[in-house]
Amino acid sequence: MSKFWGLLVFLLMLLAIDDGVPWVPWKLIVCFFIIVFGGLAKTARTAERETKQIQRDKEAKEVLESLKAEGSQKAKEP
Amino acid sequence: MSSQTIAGRSGRRRFVLFLRPFSVTRRLSVKNPYKNLQYLWPDSQGEQDTVDLEVLLADAVGEKSLLIGLGKPGEAIGAGRIETPDSDWQRELLTLVEAADAIIVIPSMSDGTRWEIKYLKEHARLTKCVFLMPPGASDLAIEWDEAIGKLPVWMPPYSNKGMLYTVNSEGQLQDSTDLKFRTTRALAQKFRSVSPKLVDELVTYNFSDQLPTRVVGSWVLYMLAAIVLPFVLAILFLCLASITDHRP
Questions:
Q1: Average of pLDDT values for B64-87?
Q2: What is the ipTM of this complex?
Q3: Starting from the edge strand earliest in sequence, which strands make up the sheet with B66-70, in order?
Q4: To bridge B78 with a disulfide, which of B58, B82, B137, B219 should be the other Cys (CB 3.0-4.6 Å)?
Q5: What is the pTM for the complete model shown?
Q6: Under an 8 A CB cutoff, do A66 and B96 touch?
Q7: What is the extent of the structural domain holding A68?
Q8: In total, how many domains does chain A have?
């Protein structure tokens, strides 16, 4: 979510609802939250990549260890 | 993803080795292909305008195998890193070189990379390699051009378009393509075009990251939003109105 989405939702809200209720309080609060969540999306993506990276580092280490084990096993074989 | 896809014929994890000078870490910035369609696609929201090429390589390889490089775990997003002691790195690297399904190399005059390329040539492993000239890395251009003729493999003059190329066992050019790409699909195709046998099964892309998919997807999304959202908001409004009505 981002400012763009906030604006889009806001415009849709204005188009969809003609309720005669002053829109300033609750509609603006909704838009504010959408924009805030937009900012959080970037943080979430970074966190997702960092988690994936931890997994990759772990798997890389496992690959090397299994290759070493395979090598020493072969060395033991007559 | 099935374990059969991940595992090679011998049953072990398939992987692509990434050999590069440590100096290029976090310095391979390219235009972010995940940001295509900009703000019109929800998944693009969390993306930066540029991304490190290593991230794209790791993602392209990571679907079916794993990109592995030496380095400090957690130092950057990209290849899975293995930390090795200074005294032992060559021995551990050789283990990886021999077992790797393919090797991506960024040639350089750094001591480590020079030793690696020399080893690859002496042990007839050059045909396992895809050499990469990073695109848009003008700060690396001088370093790149200085290495031409000093390494035992063919190297072209630096070009901003970047390049992918393969060499024969003598280190002479076999196939090449520029590295200009706007989508992850194009990146995968560049790899396939220079080395179809080597990386065909290893380098992939996500269908949902491609521009045509996102164009169609965004239209569907907006149409659904335009249909569903008024109902959701109407319900929300009715709830709020009923709460207001019940107030004394």
A1: 93
A2: 0.84
A3: B80-82, B66-70, B15-19, B102-105, B129-133, B163-167, B173-178
A4: B58
A5: 0.82
A6: no
A7: 3-76
A8: 1
